[in-house]
Design a protein that fits this description.
The complex is a heterodimer of chains A (337) and B (347).
Chain A (H helix, E strand, L loop, with lengths): L3 E16 L5 E17 L3 E6 L5 H8 L7 E6 L2 E2 L5 H10 E4 L13 H11 L9 H11 L16 H13 L5 E5 L7 H18 L2 E5 L3 H7 L2 E6 L2 E7 H6 L4 H8 L42 H5 L5 E2 L6 E2 L16
Parallel strand pairs in A: 3-8, 3-9, 6-7, 7-8
Antiparallel strand pairs in A: 1-2, 1-4, 4-5, 9-10, 11-12
Helix pairs in contact in A: 3-4, 3-5, 4-5
Chain B lengths: L1 H4 L17 E14 L2 E14 L3 E6 L5 H9 L7 E10 L2 E2 L5 H7 L4 E4 L3 H4 L6 H13 L3 H14 L5 H4 L9 H13 L5 E5 L7 H18 L2 E5 L3 H7 L2 E6 L2 E7 H6 L4 H8 L39 H5 L5 E2 L5 E2 L4 H6 L2
Parallel strand pairs in B: 3-8, 3-9, 6-7, 7-8
Antiparallel strand pairs in B: 1-2, 1-4, 4-5, 9-10, 10-12, 11-12
Helix pairs in contact in B: 5-6, 6-8
The chains are: A alpha/beta (337), B alpha/beta (347).
The complex binds adenosine-5'-triphosphate (ATP) (2 copies), iron/sulfur cluster and magnesium ion (2 copies).
One adenosine-5'-triphosphate (ATP) sits at the interface of chains B and A.
Chain lengths: 337, 347
């Protein structure tokens, strides 16, 4: 019943590093995404977490076809998106939408909310013929829990959380099948964050949407995701169900990440077992040989410098992990009642 | 604790750092409004808080409650117009900054009080390299030569864990990831070794391991240099980890102030209670999250009585009539709710 709506194979995105002002010469490559494979099933939420700068937003931009991959492929319902053009490309642009991190700068301040949400209809007029647009925009406002009467207001007249809903309404306008959310709730207070998360779940249940959900807040990701992928320096290092990643992580980076989740209880501040990562933070221009995490890993052995650990299911575990020494380790449970 | 030891006016201290100790920065009954075509929005309606040397005050509150506008007023970078300060004082070492000359305020910025801005992308200038923007401060304010300034800037970038800081020195802001820009912003604000740091959402774009490193770094600076910090954040986990005291804002007012342990254990305002209840908990997957019902008030038309009353599950008729003042309840804490005592004394 669940088929793959998106399939990503060996995806690579490099950015050239240039030197010189008049005569630019390429002196290296930022390996932002460097060989990533995964699939998104219809109706599922895939959470993506990882170190800042590990390539999450780059991945989102390539999924959206906003940037061409350097290598590998993204298939949407079996079609290679980089090979699409004309009408097929326009259809794709309808089906996959992006909600961006920043509700403050991603909305044009000179446009009314009605214009902002209705703008996609200008390009895809087949979805809403001219006469019906205001009605459609009001429906969308209502759907995301905003007052349809506020259609003529400007973004600055809304709070951060309301602006984020405007962004979501805009993404929903063309009735997409997939929404890529790049840190959609990190700027919001927890109460509004909860409202937006409830809304995303409601929309998924109603319309069977699939989400790629990128965020730094690991409890938010756990709450929303069916499966979670952990990235480090352009690679996926562990992937599994929400339970497998949070209860039985086997990759040292995942374990370090989970151990550092701040717990909202001041009485626990002094007895947490945070795994502090020491060692050099590597650069994506010249990533370490073998395992990319080895410069900061407390378990690293010679083999880690010599062989790239593949993302595969290893002995004693039930989900793929890219570590030569993958093993379970109890993580101090967070957010206890 | 420090309230007993420290007099209202701060005096140079003897903690060895050569830094004055005690009350560094006080915001006193601050009032700010925005006058726009659509009307007057009363954004700050009598905010009072202070931060002492070496201390962390966390400021929590609803999106749009005025946390950043208060910080902008302290820094003297409020958009004027449409913003107007209509009352109150901002005292640094006991002296009101709102009545100082522009030149005096300029000298305080950076060295006296520095700020990490919430929106790091628009705070960095897109046409200059990140390294240049940090080095520039050492050149202008510290009179360093080009080479020395560059060296110091690279050290700063390294300190905030930018990988390959030397190589990244000449990158433009758009070549940095969201979290790297945020760290560049932090490096810039720490460059002149400020006495007070206002950190507006300093780690929202960072993963938790880098976040822990940055908070460690800030904590170290506080211990070594007795830096006072105002931490504005939505992350109740980070607050639980690092704050000494907490001020909670709603509709331009402080509605609760308390020691970090008291506030988490027994919130004394229904808004704070609602906030703590909305935290997604790992053990409640699949359930709808609790939220605070309704919308924040329209600041052009704040409801009479308690501004939280239309959304408050405890509201009584008195809440629609009388504005609850921020009153002391017990030692070291205050709440602006008519039923604060009842809330705290619940089992
Ligand atoms: N246009 C660009 N030119 C050069 N390098 C780039 C460009 N865009 C991104 N990068 C680099 O690619 C890497 C990955 O960046 P990306 O924005 O995808 O990270 P991220 O995982 O989204 O991080 P964050 O959590 O901090 O937002 C970073 O090293 C970044 O500096
Ligand atoms: N330049 C401006 N013109 C008009 N209104 C403004 C301006 N700047 C801020 N406001 C309004 O002032 C109020 C307080 O904004 P502020 O940025 O201080 O909120 P905040 O508490 O920092 O919220 P968040 O948590 O979302 O950052 C908001 O209602 C906002 O719309
Ligand atoms: S004063 Fe009344 S309305 Fe305001 S928070 Fe307290 S109980 Fe609620
Ligand atoms: Mg990003
Ligand atoms: Mg703010």
């Amino acid at each position: 019943m669940t088929e793959n709506i998106i399939e990503v194979r060996d995806l690579v995105k490099h950015y050239p590093v240039t030197q010189g002002i008049v005569f630019k010469k390429t002196v290296g490559q930022v390996k932002a995404v460097d060989g990533v494979s995964f699939e998104l099933k219809t109706g599922e939420t895939l959470g993506v977490v990882g170190e800042s700068g590990c390539g999450k937003s780059t991945l989102a931009r390539v999924l959206m076809n906003l940037e061409k991959p350097t290598g590998g492929s993204v298939h949407y319902k079996g079609q290679d998106i980089s090979k699409l053009s004309g009408g097929a490309l326009r259809r794709l642009r309808r089906q996959i939408q992006l909600v961006m991190q920043d509700p403050y700068t991603s909305l044009n301040p000179r446009m009314t909310v009605g214009d902002l949400i209705g703008e996609p209809f200008e390009i895809h007029s087949e979805v809403a013929p001219k006469g019906s647009r205001r009605g459609k925009v009001k429906e969308l406002l209502d759907l995301v829990g905003l007052n349809p009467e506020h259609i003529n207001r400007y973004p600055h007249q809304f709070s951060g959380g309301q602006r984020q809903r405007i962004g979501i309404a805009r993404a929903l306008a063309l009735r997409p099948e997939v929404i890529v959310c790049d840190e959609p709730v990190s700027a919001l207070d927890v109460s509004i964050q909860a409202q937006v998360m409830n809304l995303l779940e409601k929309l998924q249940n109603e319309f069977g949407l699939s989400y790629v959900f990128i965020a730094h807040d690991l409890s938010v990701v756990r709450h929303l995701s069916d499966r979670v992928a952990v990235m480090y320096l352009g690679k996926m290092v562990e992937v599994g169900t929400e339970d497998e990643i949070y209860e039985r992580p086997t990759h040292p980076y995942t374990q370090a990440l989970l151990s550092a989740v701040p717990v909202p209880d001041p009485t626990l501040r002094d007895n947490k077992a945070i795994i502090r990562l020491t060692g050099d933070v590597p650069s994506p221009i010249s990533p370490p040989s073998g395992c990319r995490f080895r410069t900061r890993c407390w378990k690293a052995q010679d083999v880690c410098a010599q062989q790239v650990p593949l993302l595969e299911i290893r002995r004693g575990s039930d989900h793929p992990s890219a570590c030569h020494f993958a093993e379970k380790r109890a993580i101090v449970a967070t957010h206890q009642a | 604790m420090s309230d007993i030891l420290v007099s209202e006016q701060s005096a140079p201290g003897a903690d060895g750092s050569g830094r004055p100790s005690g009350r560094l920065l006080e915001v006193d009954d601050l009032r700010v409004e925005f006058r726009t075509r659509d009307g007057v929005a009363k954004v700050i309606n009598g905010v009072t808080y202070h931060v002492d040397a070496g201390e962390t005050l966390a400021v929590l509150g609803e999106s749009g409650s005025g946390k950043s506008v208060t910080a902008q007023t302290i820094m003297g970078i409020l958009d004027m117009p449409p913003g107007f300060v209509t009352g109150g004082q901002v005292r640094f070492h006991g002296r009101d900054m709102l009545t100082m000359s522009a030149e005096e305020r300029r000298r305080i910025r950076g060295e006296g009080i520095a700020m990490i801005f919430q929106d790091s992308l628009s705070a960095l200038n897109p046409v200059f390299t990140v390294g240049f923007q940090i080095a520039e401060q050492f050149r202008i304010r510290r009179g360093m030569g080009r080479a020395d300034a560059k060296k110091r800037a690279i050290e700063m970038l390294d300190q905030v864990k930018i990988p390959n800081a030397k190589g990244r020195f000449s990158n433009y802001p758009h070549q940095f990831s969201g979290g790297m820009r945020q760290r560049a912003m932090i490096a810039m604000s720490l460059a002149l070794d400020p006495e007070v740091l206002i950190a507006d959402e300093p780690t929202t774009a960072l993963d938790v391991t880098v976040q822990a490193q940055i908070m460690d770094l800030l904590g170290e600076l506080q211990r070594e240099r007795q830096m006072g910090m105002i931490l504005i954040t939505h992350d109740l986990g980070v607050v639980a980890d690092v704050a000494d005291r907490i001020a909670v804002m709603y509709a331009g007012r402080i509605v609760e102030e308390a020691d970090v342990y008291d506030l988490y254990a027994k919130p004394a305002h229904p808004y704070t209670l609602g906030l703590l209840d909305s935290i997604p908990r790992m053990d409640e997957k699949g359930q709808e999250l609790r939220t605070i019902k309704g919308l924040p008030p329209n600041l052009m038309n704040i409801p009479p009585g308690c501004p939280f009353n239309p959304r408050c599950p405890m509201a009584q008729p008195v809440c629609r009539e009388k504005v609850p003042p921020l009153l002391q309840i017990g030692s070291g804490r205050a709440s602006a709710c008519h039923f604060a005592e009842e809330l705290v004394n619940r089992d």
